[in-house]
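Worked problem 6 (solution included).
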Amino acid sequence: MKLSFIVSSILVVVAFSACSNTESPEKVAVSMCELAKKADIKGMKELSTVEFAKQFEQIEELFNAATATEEGKAELAKQITSMSAIECKTSTKVTDIDEKTKQVHNSETAQEFKLTLVDGKWKVTN
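Solution. The predicted structure is:
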């Protein structure tokens, strides 16, 4: 049960904390959702600001620890399967905060994060 909680918690954090970043804010937000569905931490780090990406190092360590056992691997696979039903394109909404900052909300997961314009690219931040 504890392992299940850890893996579930990791996936939720990963899910909306961030493919090509020359895209619109909407495309970056949907890409982040798709990467989270696959637990693609490397891809999410690439979509994030440097500061925000640092949290993924800890998440990677937790993933490695959680998946060191067959039980952990099975739980991660179960969580990824349950997340695969998320329809990223229809459930991810982007709204303006200002010209260089957007708010992202996913209606299926109730997760929120922000996008900020960094050197002409939209990056995930908190």
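Discussion: The first helix runs from residue 2 to 15.
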